[in-house]
Amino acid sequence: MKDITLKEIATKLGISITTVSKALKNYPDVSEKTKKAVIELAHNLHYTPNSFAVNLRTKESKTIGLIIPEVVHHFFSNIINAIIDEAEKNGYLVIILQSNESIELEKKQVELLINKRVDGILISLSNGSNNDDHIQEIIRRNIPFVMFDKISKLSKCSKVIIDDQIAAFNAVQHLIDNGCKKIAHIRGPLNPQNSIDRFIGYKKALEKNNIPFDPKLVYPCENVTFEEGYHFAKQIINEHPDVDGIFTITDLVAVGVLSFLNDNEIKIPEKIAVIGFSNWFMSQVVTPKLSTIEQPSHEMGREAFNLLLEEINCHKEEKNFEPKQIVLETSVIARESSIKKQNIY
Amino acid sequence: MKDITLKEIATKLGISITTVSKALKNYPDVSEKTKKAVIELAHNLHYTPNSFAVNLRTKESKTIGLIIPEVVHHFFSNIINAIIDEAEKNGYLVIILQSNESIELEKKQVELLINKRVDGILISLSNGSNNDDHIQEIIRRNIPFVMFDKISKLSKCSKVIIDDQIAAFNAVQHLIDNGCKKIAHIRGPLNPQNSIDRFIGYKKALEKNNIPFDPKLVYPCENVTFEEGYHFAKQIINEHPDVDGIFTITDLVAVGVLSFLNDNEIKIPEKIAVIGFSNWFMSQVVTPKLSTIEQPSHEMGREAFNLLLEEINCHKEEKNFEPKQIVLETSVIARESSIKKQNIY
User: Fold this and answer.
1) Is B281 on the interface with A (CB under 8 A)?
2) B chain contacts of residue A97, beta-carbon cutoff 8 Å
3) Most buried of A26, A66, A329, B259 (most Cβ within 10 A)?
């Protein structure tokens, strides 16, 4: 169907295009009678303002871009949920792109969003991100911009994060408090800041409790999957049969660990205690129920959007905007996989 | 940072705007020397074409809209994944909106996308959808449009679905083949077509096997949650202690059922066999592993996007487009929650 233009409405009513335009905007210098006629005809013809023309005039697209590593991921899907709900409340639409943990794709996507002239960009970096030219380009162009969860520490922009070092420290301290003396860590890949920080938190907790750090007890995931958790649990049992606790980079990996231990009838937590990270939904429904770190995904999405909106509004009012960093609280969720019997009674 | 215009490039080089524009488009009537100078300067000034102006000229936004009931949902997040990957390969961006199962929100979102002049719309209907004025409006405007998974049967548009009746029939037949004689059904809400069809499939399987249908054994979910599964399992055990099989509308509900049965040490599948629907990831990691129906979410997303693209291209070429319906195959995934011992040996 052809779109209706102001010109067609004007022709049909025998008035000027300017009058039609003014009538639709409720200008005082158009008579009520004319306004009524224009509005009725516009309605009957299903007239909608051409959004491209509106965009060209206001220089606003009322659209923001969101780049995340993965959509099929409990933590990120919760963040998407919060961002699109918050954006909608504020009249913004969200274009979502997933980098699939590829830096090349992430760079291309940033370029796409810049060319699309979105009003702002939200990013959680891919694991592959080891240079940040594309991030610098967003900042150089002064496009409203917020990084969340997986960030690069040095970039000068707003950030919403948790303190991964403290959260990981608390996870490992929880295992120690439950009697673990030899704790393995299934870590994330080497690049991402959150993977590095969780590893540092693990080391700091050992140090604080005078447990010697043994690099052989650290197993790095490449893709952070269930299968890697299963595989590394097997390797840990074979190589270090006296390990009595495992701290993993995320719940998905921890569930892989539980699965291997269950399949081999190794008692959890009596023989090995396990703690994950992120409090995925499935952690409450696996057997035994998985202890983990609560990471406030919904709050993270909401705060990230609101920081972006604050910057967008500052730009509109031509005010200066100083990037902000918000650090959200985490907590240990203690469940069956780590609470040893002697601590229950 | 201010955006660079063609005019600024023209002024700096002392040539006309037309020449700059032609140089950037590699027109043959501009000298190589001028082209080189324009391209270099455009690159150095970080010139990007104004996408709003490009949109206004081409009448294409290269953006499509996707409305789904929920983002935090294993099945839908897999579909989103497939759609944005497929869209990106074909040069399209995807605006994602979630209706949160609200018909009011869904109607508003359709209007937003129409006003945004997206090149096409993909929808999986909310459970609340009991009238389809907004759907008719998309069709009336001749906007390329595909419904998937949760559809309205009467709308004249392309559709990608599974045969929910056959899939549900097979799930219940599987329970009967494993010795179940009295099977309860925790169904979805009353409106959505897929919920109705799964219920019909359940009834047909009973009928085929000469098991009398008892409406008291059917429990309707309002929100299709884990908690409802837990709650209805309790109710079933209290009201009908001789029920020996449960078929649920989706895996999330089935996992709630398993959780209640486990907490109360009711043996699965010896006392009660359970089968879900959709093959969520967690179904493989709960105890016992959950039997379910494999529903091809990735394929559904891909097919839905490609049907939409076909329609978009037909419109561009001003060809007629006849709506198509694609029905994808499903299969029973038999796991521990339904395979009774006598059938294993």
Assistant:
1) yes
2) 84, 88, 93
3) A66
Distance from CA of B213 to the nearest CA of A (A): 32
pLDDT at residue A342 greater than cutoff 70: no
For residues A286 and B286, is the Cβ–Cβ distance under 8 A? Answer: yes
Do B52 and A61 make contact, defined as CB atoms within 8 angstroms? yes
What ipTM goes with this model? 0.78
What does the pLDDT average to over A52-63? 70
Bigger pLDDT: A336 or B51?
A: A336
Ordered structural domains, chain B, with CATH: 6-49 (1.10.260.40), 60-162+297-328 (3.40.50.2300), 164-295+332-344 (3.40.50.2300)
Instruction: Quote the tokens at residue B119.
Output: 């090149």
In this prediction, residue A345 carries a pLDDT of 40
Low-confidence residues in chain B, pLDDT < 70: 1-3, 49-58, 129-130, 341-345
Amino acid at B125: L
The answer to whether B337 and B178 are in contact (CB under 8 A) is no
Question: Are the Cβ atoms of A81 and B98 closer than 8 angstroms?
Answer: yes
Percentage of chain B lying above the pLDDT 90 cut = 70
Q: Would you state the pLDDT for residue A227?
A: 97
Across the strands, what pairs with A328?
A: A162
Span A9-18, pLDDT tens digits: 888 888 888 8
- Cα distances from B165 to residues A315, B34, B169, B198, B223, in angstroms, run 54, 66, 6, 5, 21
Q: Is A279 on the interface with B (CB under 8 A)?
A: no
Q: In the prediction, which pLDDT does B116 show? A: 86
Instruction: Tell me the CB-side half-sphere exposure of residue B232, using CA atoms within 13 A.
Output: 30
Torsion of CA B30, B35, B41, B46, to 10 degrees: 100
B325, two tokens? 């319906």
Enumerate residues 6+ apart whose C-beta is below 8 A from A250: A75, A188, A224, A276, A277, A278, A280
In B, minimum Cα distance to A53 occurs at B56
Q: Does B114 contact A63 at a Cβ distance shorter than 8 Å? A: no
What tokens were used for B131? 């009238």
DSSP A100-146: TT-HHHHHHHHHHHHHTT-SEEEE---TT----HHHHHHHHTT--EE
The burial of B133, by beta-carbon neighbours within 10 Å (0-12 exposed, 13-18 middle, 19 or more buried), is given as exposed
Q: State chain A's mean pLDDT as an integer.
A: 91
